[in-house]
């Protein structure tokens, strides 16, 4: 079963890469994959996740231009996160909650899109975020959360980022991050999860910012895309929120 999950993760990862590119370039979402440089159609044997990248040594078969590292990395990350969320639920094999697993896989896929898109182009795509807010509300109602709790959680996080947006006068935070906050809220719902998610966002953000400063890659006051950190923090909280809060309260 675990191998099926890995293969599924790799295939979905490959699909996410193509989705991200088509979204950015405004290409149609149907039709065969093609090289973004020379537009040559990509045969199925050159489109096998990770393996094709290695066999082609990271270059297009036709124009020999470099293929971005994003492609194999997204495929591996998707597969890894799919496996982790599967293992987390599998602890109780007689009660594998497929609905919860489906919700978590969808969340992973969406957050990978948000991460890559914000990392590369500093934009949180509302075309992706807004429809998934609705999908997670529906998912969580079926997972027997109360509808008003889901909505309040979404409002709390979007208001939190909205407040930051006003206070910092739109520096380092965009309107997309407010919507992304709502998405994280309706996904995580529980109040302690919301705290952990915000906490992790700023911890990870600070560590990355300090590392970049130390290595001279960035200067003081330069902006880092917040959506990148929100997406990592949301997935970590979704998968390990309970473990993190137990660990934290055991400290005292
Ligand atoms: Zn090419």
Q: How many strands, what sense, and barrel or not for the largest sheet?
A: none
- Structural class call reads mainly alpha
Principal-axis shape equals globular
Radius of gyration: 19 Å
The distinct bound ligands, ions and cofactors come out as: zinc ion
Number of domains: 2
Q: Proportion of β residues?
A: under 5%
Number of strands: 0
Structure description:
- The protein is mostly helical.
- It folds into 2 domains: 1-96, no CATH class; 123-252, no CATH class.
- The protein is built from 9 helices and no strands.
- It has helices at 2-25, 51-55, 70-90, 98-121, 126-142, 147-167, 175-188, 191-214, 226-250.
- Helix 6 (147-167) runs antiparallel to helix 7.
- The radius of gyration is 19 Å and the shape is globular.
- It starts with a helix and ends with a helix.
- 34% of the residues are buried.
- The mean pLDDT is 91.
- Bound molecules: zinc ion.
- Residues 35, 37-38, 40, 60, 62-63, 65 line the site of zinc ion.
Write the layout of secondary structure elements.
Elements: H1 2-25, H2 51-55, H3 70-90, H4 98-121, H5 126-142, H6 147-167, H7 175-188, H8 191-214, H9 226-250
The chain binds zinc ion.
């Amino acid at each position: 079963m675990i191998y099926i999950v890995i293969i599924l993760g790799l295939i979905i990862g490959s699909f996410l890469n193509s989705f991200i590119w088509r979204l950015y370039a405004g290409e149609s979402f149907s039709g065969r994959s093609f090289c973004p440089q020379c537009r040559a159609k990509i045969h199925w044997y050159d489109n096998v996740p990770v393996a094709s990248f290695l066999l082609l040594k990271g270059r297009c078969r036709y124009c020999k231009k470099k293929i971005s590292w994003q492609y194999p990395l997204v495929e591996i990350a998707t597969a890894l996160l799919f496996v982790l969320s599967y293992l987390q639920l599998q602890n109780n094999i007689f009660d594998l909650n497929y609905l919860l697993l489906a919700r978590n896989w969808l969340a992973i896929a969406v957050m990978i899109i948000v991460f890559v898109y914000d990392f590369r182009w500093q934009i949180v795509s509302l075309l992706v975020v807004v429809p998934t807010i609705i999908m997670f509300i529906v998912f969580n109602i079926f997972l027997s959360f109360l509808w008003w709790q889901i909505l309040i959680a979404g409002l709390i996080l979007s208001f939190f980022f909205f407040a930051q947006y006003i206070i910092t006068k739109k520096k380092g935070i965009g309107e997309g991050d407010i919507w992304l906050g709502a998405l994280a809220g309706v996904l995580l719902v529980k109040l302690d999860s919301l705290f952990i998610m915000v906490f992790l966002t700023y911890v990870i953000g600070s560590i990355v910012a300090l590392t970049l400063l130390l290595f001279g890659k960035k200067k003081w006051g330069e902006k880092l895309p917040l959506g990148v950190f929100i997406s990592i923090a949301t997935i970590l909280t979704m998968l390990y929120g309970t473990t993190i809060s137990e660990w934290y309260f055991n400290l005292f």
